[in-house]
Amino acid sequence: MKEKSPLYKRVVKLIQNIPSGKVATYSHIAGLAGAKGCARHVSYILSSSSKSQNLPWHRVINSQGKISLRVEQGYFDQINRLKKEGVNIVADKVYLETYLWQPTNKKLKSLLKDLPPHIPLSVR
DNA sequence: GTTATGACCGGTT
DNA sequence: CAACCGGCCATAA
Predict the structure, then answer these.
(1) Closest nt to residue A41, judged CA to C1'
(2) How many CA atoms lie within 13 A of A71 on its CB side?
(3) What's the confidence (pLDDT) of residue A52?
(4) Closest to A62 measured CA to CA, from A21, A34, A93
(5) Which end of chain A is less packed: N or C, by CB atoms within 10 Å?
(6) Residue A1's pLDDT is what?
């Protein structure tokens, strides 16, 4: 079995802990994971393994508050899931000021304490 | 090694 | 507002 990368583990752990009724953005998750600039990779992780994990993948959207999925990828499914959790969507947009998940520093630390840090390629 | 590929982002036009 | 652009960075091939 191939071991998943530290970044992968961190990202998954964070997403698993987004509470119902809240959302996060790709770049936000990357930042929390200690991998600022890796927003694209967060989406990469989701598209490659969201269906096979117990991941609340629908709670992750882009920095404009919009759904990044295409229709054939489950665009409407994502909207329905969010609405069901009480997330208000106006003109295809979620108001991040209201719904963005903002864990306390303490919470964040406790979530990631057992996971190895992400080390950028440029330093490896 | 190199090149291609993202459910991306921020600034600019 | 929206569309475009250049940069971003870890993987897959």
Answers:
(1) C10
(2) 0
(3) 67
(4) A93
(5) N
(6) 62
